[in-house]
Amino acid sequence: MRMGFITSLFDGWTYEEMMDDVARLGIECVEVACWPKGKAERKYGGVTHIETERVLEDDAYAQHILGYAKEKGVDICALAYYPNNLDPDPERRKTFNDHLITTIRAAAKLGVPKVTTYIGRVTDKTLEENLEILPGVWGPILDVAEQEGIRVCIENCPMLFDASNWPGGQNIMTSPANWERVFEVLPSKNLGIAIDPSHFVWQMIDCASAVREFADRIYHVHLKDIKFKSEELAWRGTMAYPLDIMDPKIPGWGDVDWSDFISQLSMIGYNGDCCLEVEDRFFEDGTRESLVKAVELSKRYMDQFII
């Protein structure tokens, strides 16, 4: 397995600055944030370390991206773009889908094998209603992924945090049961899973079973932790807004059983990229130093498992 890092934490860094810090920390690969330039609509979204449109239009820029990564000894393992690809507004949905296709084509040009994203969700529609929408939206996207030889990896984050995402969140690929339904509708082998164990902890899903059952569709791994607030869970119950009953934490500071998770991955033969994802508010004091320290501490803890 390879220790990686999803770069959206480093908002405000240039590509070169980001690569400099990643290389200094001894990280082997990066899942690079590729949102279109503009104002971020949410935290950890809207970060642009690689401009995918420019990659397609400017050969010199594309070569610089690859050359600088090689110079720093850091591999680009995936391009990251996480919008709601089933946004209920047709214009927004088309904008998101078009940029995702651009990102897939840019990955192919750069020789990057994966693009990470969300399937999406029309928040106020049922799972079954969303499944009916999938082929029309995702068929053309996966056609491009198949043509370009790119694996599209869907994270299992429900994208349900507060009242703005209620009731269904913004991503239907949140559980093994839902994965099964989505793969029935979209059977392309270019569609797979970017598994993050922290989302299964607060959903109370058996992560080990999920890893075993979907061994052939796990294409990417995120390393993030969460800590239950037991007194809030006891007071609010499981129907509460998720951020009222848990906090995202760096690996080792939460409730994920990392030894078991990595062991399960090893038993299915997973030997791919495992990217640190940091969303811990403790380190958000406005300084770059604190964010870099969060990544350093995360890597130090996970080094005992990722070999």
- State the separation between the terminal residues, measured CA to CA: 6 Å
What percentage of amino acids are in beta strands?
15-25%
Number of strands: 10
CA-based shape: globular
Counting helices, strands and paired strands, the structural category is alpha/beta
Describe the strand arrangement of the main beta sheet, using strand numbers: 1-2-3-4-5-6-7-10
* Helix and strand element order: EHEHHEHEHEHEHHEEHHEHEH
Q: Characterize the biggest β-sheet.
A: 8 strands, parallel, barrel
Query: How many helix segments?
Result: 12
Mean residue pLDDT:
95
State the low-pLDDT regions, or none: none
Evaluate the radius of gyration.
18 Å
The percent of residues in helical segments reads: 40-55%
Kindly summarize this structure in a few lines.
With 307 residues, the chain is of the alpha/beta class. The protein has 12 helices and 10 strands.
Give a structural overview.
The protein is of the alpha/beta class. The protein has helices spanning 15-25, 52-57, 59-72, 90-110, 127-148, 176-185, 197-203, 207-213, 230-236, 242-245, 258-267, 288-302, and strands at 2-6, 29-33, 75-80, 114-117, 151-155, 191-195, 218-223, 225-228, 246-249, 273-276. An 8-stranded parallel beta barrel has the order 1-2-3-4-5-6-7-10, surrounded by 4 helices. Helix 1 (15-25) runs parallel beside helix 3. The longest helix has 22 residues, at 127-148. The radius of gyration is 18 Å and the shape is globular. It starts with a strand and ends in a 5-residue tail after the last helix. The mean pLDDT is 95.
